[in-house]
Amino acid sequence: MKGGHGDNYYYQMVAGIRKFKGVRPFQKSSKQKTISTESGFSQWKDVKPVFLDDIGDTAHRNSAGWCQPKPYINITGRNDFEEMKVAADDKMIYFYVRTHKPITKPEGQNWMNLLINTDSNYATGWEGYDYIVNRKINGTTKSTLEKHVKNWEWQPVTNIRFRVSGNEMQLAIPRRLFKSDKKNGELAFDFKWTDNVPGKGDIMDFIDKGDVAPNMRFAYRYQPN
Prior knowledge:
The chain is mostly beta strands and 225 residues long. The protein is 11% helix and 36% strand. It is built from three helices and 13 strands, in the order H-E-E-E-E-E-E-E-E-E-E-H-E-H-E-E. It is globular and about 55 Å long.
């Protein structure tokens, strides 16, 4: 509820269900693998685990609102996330994403953003996320990795390369930026994909704007075997 308890009750319910019914174990991750961002997407075929998102949640809405004089209109749905993967080697972390239909042209600040919580600490960063990718697009194959400063403010760190073809996309990020890797030698982090969500720093927009994977506040966790 906007202006009230937000989505607090929903996550209290989720916590209760998980407490009594449990959760699925983490999928085993593949061995280290080097991905060429210049090459095709067949190199991802044997990479595990596979992170999934429900499809069909980008449908546009224009219908009567409850006790409102005007209809509810929402046309922010665009790229519909379907499948995500992560691979790693000693130098880079590689990300793959597939959408239900061909990915739109790379433009604007809200196109195919990737949020990463590198230290698994939700008391740091924006809602826990330390880095964001693709807020600044430099052509059709390059964008910027930015680090959180405060609120919804981000500072450029380095340029990255990505490749898009049809409904698939891949990119690579330097492994040295992942704090958990530095601390204990183990690679573990959370990540989230978003598209066409207004860039104003309100996480409640994850509920009904554009598309996010996984839904709402949830995040995917990548960790070694």
